[in-house]
Design goal:
Belongs to the terpene synthase family. The chain is mainly alpha-helical and 349 residues long. It folds into two domains: 1-29 and 187-342, Farnesyl Diphosphate Synthase; 31-155, no CATH class. It has helices spanning 3-13, 37-51, 58-66, 68-75, 81-101, 108-122, 126-132, 136-153, 162-183, 189-199, 202-212, 226-253, 260-268, 272-300, 308-328; strands at 15-18, 345-348. A two-stranded antiparallel ribbon has the order 1-2. The protein is globular. 40% of the residues are buried.
Length: 349
């Protein structure tokens, strides 16, 4: 089914319903108690500065109600205040950078240079990165990221370079995603998931679990175990697909069809609500699969290895945190959004 056919079918339905959340199978997310009003305000000010927003402006209010730092507070509930603030800034940057790299007003050459500069910054080479970026506004943002990473490095054990390498892959895939959007390529589901499991930005966030908690799993080769790889794959797909479910309306309005909803509609030649129901079912199946894999880890004895269950539980918390935050954030629902109690609802296209 061509993208124009999907557009006409979705337009005819005009609305869709997301069924009640099924993530009761997962551990309920709890906020990091150290992420207080002071920390939240610091992240909001940082975001305003990054985007050069006037406090109180519509865009500034939107960013504040998007509560980007809150995701970090849910996803890393046990780390110290000194860690949670730079982690929250990094996660906020992930979202803001994604928006910037999708901005059609920025030239393709500037975009390529910024993506390359970001990669250099993750390798600690800001001086070289600065030579690439001619746009002074973009350069200022690159410098702000560099300062966040310096702060984060004080608390992160990453001897193998897992965090840095995974972020390089994310930025590489952002460029591929941009090319697909420009050419209106509609991939099959497997190809889409190959892209999405990277562009979701989950891999560096899982690397932070190991590095911030200083579990040493990467150095001890534990992450190569098939059951741990399976946990990471399930967690990544759950986070990416749940985000697609929540963010569909926003992305569709922008003409971004690289989302599992239109991909499923294209594959199954079905309408909007049927595709939404399929995606919600896939998310629920991933939760069941995660619980089963977690039990395998426990029964196999792998759970006895130091740090393994801290990591597995951390992935589960990330899955639940992403689902919780997605329903709270104005990023996907607009200013003034009031989250529904049942985490379900009907939305107009």
């Amino acid at each position: 089914m061509a993208i124009l056919s999907i557009v006409s079918i979705f337009a005819a339905e005009k609305s869709y319903s997301i069924p009640p959340a099924s993530n009761k199978l997962l551990a309920s997310p709890a906020l990091n108690p150290l992420y207080d009003a002071k920390a939240d305000a610091e992240i909001n000010v940082w975001c305003d500065e990054f985007l050069k927003l006037q406090p109180g402006s519509e865009k500034s209010v939107f960013i504040r109600e998007s509560r980007l730092g809150l995701l970090a507070a849910y996803a890393y509930p046990s780390i110290s205040y000194e860690k949670i603030v730079p982690v929250a800034k990094f996660i906020a940057w992930l979202f803001l950078a994604d928006d910037i790299l999708d901005n059609p007003e920025i030239s393709s050459s500037d975009m390529r240079n910024v993506a390359t500069a970001y990669k250099m910054v993750f390798k600690g080479r800001f001086d070289e990165a600065a030579l690439l970026v001619k746009n002074q506004e973009l350069l200022r943002q690159v410098k702000m990221l560099s300062e966040v990473l310096k702060e984060l490095s004080l608390h992160l054990v990453d001897k193998s370079g897992r965090f840095m390498n995974s972020m390089t892959k994310v930025l590489d895939m952002f460029e591929i995603e941009s090319n697909w959007l420009h050419k209106q390529i509609v991939p099959n589901l497997d190809t889409y998931m190959w892209l999405r499991e990277i562009t979701s930005g989950v891999a560096p966030c899982f690397a932070l679990l190991d590095g911030l908690l200083q579990l040493g799993l990467e150095e001890r080769g534990v992450l190569d175990h098939p059951l741990i790889c399976k946990v990471e794959e399930i967690g990544t797909h759950h986070i990416a697909l749940h985000n697609d479910l929540i963010s569909f309306r926003k992305e569709w309005a922008k003409g971004n069809y690289l989302n599992a909803v239109p991909i499923l509609a294209s594959i199954h030649k079905c309408g909007l609500n049927e595709a939404i129901a399929m995606l919600a079912s896939m998310v629920e199946d991933l939760e069941k699969e995660f619980i089963g894999t977690k039990q395998e880890i426990i029964s196999s004895g792998l759970a006895m290895k130091q740090g393994v269950m801290d990591y597995v539980n951390g992935v589960e918390v990330w899955m639940a945190a992403n689902a919780e935050w997605g329903w709270l954030s104005a990023r996907y629902h607009g200013i003034g959004w009031i989250p529904p109690r049942e985490k379900s609802g009907t939305f107009q296209l």
